[in-house]
Predict the structure.
Amino acid sequence: MKQIAIVLCLSAALALSVSCSESLLNIPQLGVQSEANSYITDEDCDAATAAVYAAWRHAWSGTGSSSAIGTTFCNLFWFKNLLSDEFNPGSQTYQTDLASYTYTNANPWIGAIYEFLYGTVYYANIVIDNFKPESETKMRCIAEAKFFRALSYYELITLWGRVPLVDHVMTPENNYQIAPSDIETLWKFVLGDLDDAIGPEGAPLLVSKNSIDDKDTGTRITLEAAYAVRGKVHLTLKNYSEARADFGKVIGSGKYGLIDNIGDLYHTAANGCREYIFENVRHWDTNNLYTSSDDAAQDGWYGLEENWPFMYAMEAADDAQYPFVTVAGWGAMDPTRKVYDSFVAEEGPNSVRRLASVVDTTDLKALKVTILKTCDWKGSDAYFRFKWLMRTDDEWDTGWTGRLNNTPCMRYADVLLMMAEACVRDGEDGDAYINEVRARAGLPPVSGATIADVKKERLLELCFEATRLQDLKRWDECGEGDLPANLADKGKRVPRTIGMEGGACRVEWTDNPDPSAGWQESERYLPYPLVEIQTNKLINE
């Protein structure tokens, strides 16, 4: 009772003080802009839109904290890769549960990704709700915000299925309670946003690159990027003619193409290149460097995964072909034998594309890499991912987790192969598109390309790029059984590589003691995160 009395007395005193001295206390806080004055000018709109880009970068390839996960690092790029058939379960519990399909709704990565995507939707809604299309800048920014809102919902729908449709900035008044919408309504909303972002024919709201090698304009979302994403949505919905029309806009623009050296992808040499349809941009900024474990420089952590063998157990010669980072690394994202064998079966043992993607221990000698000590690599069957493996020229000068390389979210090879898929599904000839990708890989052309050809090419060209899971879902929904065929045994047996000094390796396999391992029909969609169930009482309606 004494505590309550004290609080009441203090509250009364404060109220009396405010009523008597209101004019003295009502002083504008210096350096702080009120919300009412924050959404007025073109500069305000650009600043608000920059927050949307940052939220998406954080969701796709960033790291850091969320209310669901604290400071354990995760992003959508890792998340979808783990759920595909391209990676073995690692040694970290959250990753292992995802990769073996033994997760529950309490898995904090599931909660974090859900939160990151809705975070992007939130920042997009701020732009859309608060600015009127009364200038070119504001019209462009609103279009960009609608693009990112649509993209976030593409991910939410394909991963979770029915999710809440949040088309405005929510406030505490509605207590953040909202039921999920049906999938048809959600897809209609996504297409509507993309239609709005693209704008009327002949009067685009978004920018386009000035030329195929224009590195500057493409730092923003372009008109062609919006066409590419809308085409992907149409492909998912089996609207093949519409998908072909959208991909045709990108291909026919002449603003994109394949780079010559596939090994440059995901490294600084490819920043802003002709192949990136859109990318997460990082740049040298001394005011935005790594400062703590919860503040990786411009979300540049992702490439550390699986770099630890080169930090801990291996040594690269001074003239090694690959400039390995040897001061940092984590152990995860070990490729499956399936990916390696698929490369060898289609391309032979020494193809450039395979060597830029996945290598085995026999490749290490040619790469002038030596195993220095006996090591125990759980979740590895002696294959190493080279695609997006850190290189010294990708690093910040300071801050061991920062990276200067941009992260592509979609590249032109993906568009070409989606176009080939849409053509074949629609009874048209897709050879030219698939063969353009194969030519860069040094492969002979195919004639009369089939869906099986497209599937094989997408696995090899886009491995480890967070496209595989949604590819399998899309094909499975065409009645082709791709999910159970490729994921039913995922994680049921776990590899372990014993790396011996001098280069020899022994691989051991053990049965997963968890009987729930492997994809099941009930896992076609992810469960709603536990934190969402606890806070949103309408989520299961």
Observations:
- The radius of gyration is 25 Å.
